[in-house]
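We modelled each protein-ligand pair independently. The example shown here corresponds to the pyridoxal-5'-phosphate entry; the chain sequence is given first, followed by the ligand as SMILES.
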Amino acid sequence: MELLKPIRKKDPDQQGFATRTIHAGQPHDPYTGSVVPNIVLSSTFAQKSPGIPYAQKSPGAPHGFEYSRTNNPTRATYELCCASLENGEYAVAFASGMAAISGALHLLKHGDNVLCIADAYGGTLRYINTICVPSYGITATYGDFATENVMELLATSPKTTKMVWLESPSNPLLKVLDIAAIAAAVRETFDGECLLVVDNTFMSPYFQRPLELGADLVVESATKFLNGHSDVVGGIVAGRDRALEQRLRHTQNALGAVPSPFDCYLVLRGMKTLPLRMERSASNAMQLALFLESHTSVERVIYPGLPSHPQHELSKRQMLHGGFGSIVCFFCVGGLIGAKILLERFQLWTLAESLGAVESLVESPAVMTHSSIPKEKREELGIFDNLIRLSCGIEDASDLIFDMNQALEGLDGM
Ligand SMILES: *Cc1c(COP(=O)(O)O)cnc(C)c1O
């Protein structure tokens, strides 16, 4: 027995991404040995003495548990796992991606300006333009960080700019931004007084980690890849600065848009297969992109993994694990009529909004996700009626290609 070497345990921070999707924040239950985190439904928690919680202090509950809007054991476990995957110090969970986005925007005060990408997620634009601006006295300016000179865009922004809001790749045109370069430019222009927030929903922390690229906060709609099974609506905000965490926790508790313990459990479960799902769906996306690029019923394909994508080299540098995500866009022939005929012909692809789940989805941004943007403005952005957005799932690529091929067949001869 003396020959046995002392047991060694890898520092959890040094473990690989896939290991952490399964284990981060999720030790076995000390009482039962349960391997799966408990779903703790209790809305309130017994106290030993007034103001002294019963539960032991833990990294997920530095003050113990009192009331589930403020903190809940299942949610704390979920938040610890998300924090680890984003390579952050903390993650704050919300009841939807939009609740997470509004939680982050609530860091702004009356009179502050947010500089946002012009083609941000529609819900983000709606929250800024119809609530933050008229009700909270926040101002908003917009820019295209992919084509405008970023230094000039920042330098000509109002001095009151306290937040820059990015998505990369953008939705639906998949423009890729140099997050590290923008982070450095924001720090330089605003002397560290302006937060860079990146909505990372399209990539998930498996393919892109904005905090490592210099962003102050990362936002994810957990509804999409994190959960990945089209059965939860949720969102998180993650970061590294503990003072910011305190402000986000205050907002989480004050707004009260928190996820249920069951939803936290479902996303924790979904995240265990995040690397496998991302690898498979991105591989399917690459195969679809190549197939579409060679099809005579297709005018143009947009996918960061294709050498024809204007930011292909940047994507190779910035995206992790050699992947380019699971979203592919293309313009079909035949305009709006062609798109409509195509979308009605799919048998395996589901015609639906949303993205990031195990089943493959197809949609028309002009008629569905982006229909609230006036046609003229849509076309200015490049969202024409024949644009089709795919969210590749994890089915067999051959079946997805078969269905795509049969749906496209003859469209070019119409
Ligand atoms: C879906 C989505 C959101 C909003 O998330 P919900 O969970 O639907 O509230 C925000 N940003 C992006 C990029 C999204 O795709």
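The chain has two domains: 47-271, 274-413.
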